[in-house]
Fold this protein.
Amino acid sequence: MADFIQPETAFHAGERSLQAKLGKVDMLDVVGKRVLRPFMTEQLQDFFADLDMIMISGRDDEGRPWATFLTGPKGFMKTGDDRKLLIDALPDRYDPLFDHLQAGTEVGMIGIQFDTRRRNRINGVITKRHESGLVIDIKQAFGNCPKYIYQQPNYSHQNDHILHQQPILSADMTTMIANANVFFMASGITDNPDERTSGMDMSHRGGEPGFIKVIDDKTLIFPDYKGNSFFQTLGNLTIDPRVGLFFIDFDQDIRLHITGTADILFDGYDEKAWPDAERLVKINIQDARLLKSEG
């Protein structure tokens, strides 16, 4: 295992501001130092090597976050050591991150085993892009609890073609969102003097179908349920409200990518309409891309 010097805090100012609302800063500092590491444990290395899919976030040339995935047979990800992840896959040519996952790009990743309900996250930076994949240096690695992870159908991904690309939701996009019980969310902060806490992040959101609501063709709202109170995603959004969302129809191999901005709603909404929500997140859509398999 790599040498590990405990930082003064594992969280940046945006995360700590939300933790302070709950009076948990001191407690979470202790927990964060223990579980948020700048390397992968042996357990995490084995976990990622056993996956056939990983969700990954990055930014386009305008700085907008996008969320997508990389897929391959089990073993398409390997660990060079406990601080390096080797991925033998690249985005498809119509993917919003196709040209943007380059050396020097900060990325966030989350791997999920839907059958075992295990999920683990990595944040890092791409140090090399070659003709078939990426080399990523790890900045932060940690596990998440199994809450709100739902079983998904077996999935086989083929190359993409574009169904729709537009600044508002189409009818097909709206239907896909209404039926979803899972989506993935890209966020991040830039220009942070503390390099350890800058960069991109990727998170998982789950709920019963209909838990994310389409308000109109440019607006979504979803509940933020009780979690570990780290606030990695919402903490990022308090500093940089730009966000990317990624939905998958596992049966039909259709993907929906959205980029926009987020507002965190702490009060002023009908709590009865959002049971179990601790707060809401409103997404203001700027661009959306619906992709379907060519197979």
About this structure: Confidence is low (pLDDT under 50) at residues 1-7. The first strand starts at residue 53 and ends at 59. The two ends are 43 Å apart (CA to CA). Helices lie at 13-21, 25-35, 42-49, 171-179, 232-239.
